[in-house]
Amino acid sequence: MPKNFPILTLNIEELDERGYGIAQHGNKIVQVLNALPGETVEAQIFRKKKGSWQGVAKQVLQASNLRVAPREDHFLCCSPWQILDFEAENQIKASSIKKFYQEVQVNLPDFDIISLLDQTWNYRNKAEFSFYSDEAEQLNLAFFGRDSRSKYPHTGCVLMAEPINIAGRRFLDFLNDRKIQARQLKSLILRYCYAQNKVVACLFFKDESLSFEPKELLSLLDDILQGVSIIYSTHKSPAPVVTEIRHQLGCMELTESICDVNLTYNWDNFFQINPPVFELGAKDLIEQIKATPDFSNLPVVEMYAGIGT
Known about the structure:
By secondary structure, the chain is α+β, with helices and mostly antiparallel strands.
């Protein structure tokens, strides 16, 4: 960490919509990961912007009674909310939504956050994993840290539908068997379909000389992993852009069912990340529309154009 990035003792006042604790340091607003309202923390600053700094709490000097133990070591990469009690998390998110609308002169009535209590974990249907090679040159799945510099190895994530984690580990074993290193790769994108219980996987690599045999790739396909795409992505961009599709095996399309409507999408299309909860919201919208007088003659305005809406 650069010498001009200090460690500060801060009093956290509130949480923003991304899960950062908000504190004041002189004339600077400081956004702090791993910090909750009412806590006093020692925070390491890792980014400075005009008017605001970002940091992470390395030590909690006075903890909130709402703090709970995170489910995984890499929680700051994927879900800083893991340190917060689930009910309190929903209350803070509802308050953030109200605050957002108040800024545009819209006052929302009280509302409940839609959730499935038996599905607070392992619900996401899309993951993008990076890679990390350890000192023994063993390849690991990884997430980038919020500072965009560090990588945190892992064996899966509690936010992802478990078939995604299983497919990710199988792909990792496949790459390790071939002694492939992180420096040759970019990322692994995995998509999961609830209705079909199927996964598709796209491996992005940046070492143009890297090659795979179709026969060995076929060994990855099974009852869950139905499609694999191997994509060369130019080293000129850090993002997983499609430069050339080298191999594509199996079916790369998924068909999800929302309110008995089948919606087919490709691996690179947008889709709702939590279909069961989205279906609850869709059913509620349908009932509200039906309860509107003369609804069949009224226009419907699509406010967010995407598959599944």
